[in-house]
């Protein structure tokens, strides 16, 4: 196939897809439209970069497991100016702390994870202390831990995909796509805000939190909204003895090391919308939870933080990947609901296989098809952070 492909959005999804299209041997022209080439508001650089296999559905576990293998060898397989593309992947583990009432669900999750090859294991409170000596386990029954997991630098991942894609003649255009054009149920191209029209028989919507709006303009609404999420960076007065795994408290508050400091966040209830207003005062809600869990967090200096957007799927908090049944040539990779970094390598590969080979080969992504909503075949994931 040699016809032109247009990708809307050059974040980690769009860039991974462009890279994998070339890797799969796609020889036609590929244009990526990116409205914000500095990536000031894109979700990718604002992400916490957590990479975990501790999911509760087979598709999410499989996707993360694949991506984790890619991230482990990223600096050997990807290059920037001939140098290894470093992504600072710290495999310090992922840890979901649990109270008594969470144990039976956690047992089921672990069983599925282990069946799919994930080396997750349940830790008793005493074992938790070996990992985090400063932890307060008094109200905990234990935790589910996966030592292979960890966190990385999302911006570097995105830039490496982009660099390799551009090296293989993928063109990045700094313009905002206003409309995806179509005629009689077939995509025909895009029109940008400046009025430029580019024709293409395949258009991929990788526009993150802005993607649903673009789809709606074509008359194809998606159950996705933009939701603000905040991250706080602080410096504890007394440093911790060990580097932290990405740790999720039973309240949903998560924290991990960022250098010598700590980043933390929480999924609070906010109205959907493009809101980037970081509220320092919000930390007052998190602090008691943090101080209760880790004694060293009682005394700290809040340094800074930022807000970013989840492209949040209201139906089942999972991605929508693949073609749209009502529009030939229209593909989507949207709705990641806060777990896109750990899916980007597998999603880019899957979309590339769909285009180049006509079907998914490496990972079957059909559970994440758009049609699942009409078929009432939702992918209900219970480990959303
Ligand atoms: C605070 C926070 C914490 C997170 N933590 C994690 C985590 O720990 N682990 C994890 O796996 N995931 C995490 N995520 C989610 C992850 O960051 C996203 O799922 C992922 O980055 C989505 O990538 P994307 O390429 O789809 O979106 P984006 O990075 O937003 O890229 C989309 C791009 O499309 C461009 N665009 C939009 N509309 C148009 C248009 N009309 N024309 C041209 N360009 C357009 C935008 O400018 C943007 O650059 C987090 C997200 C946030 C906000």
From TrEMBL:
Keywords: Oxidoreductase. It holds the Pfam family DAO. It comes from the Bacteria. InterPro entries: FAD-dep_OxRdtase, FAD/NAD-bd_sf. Residues 4-354 form the FAD dependent oxidoreductase domain. PANTHER family: FAD-DEPENDENT OXIDOREDUCTASE DOMAIN-CONTAINING PROTEIN 1, SARCOSINE DEHYDROGENASE-RELATED. This is Glycine/D-amino acid oxidase-like deaminating enzyme. It comes from Siminovitchia thermophila. The lineage of its organism: Bacteria, Bacillati, Bacillota, Bacilli, Bacillales.
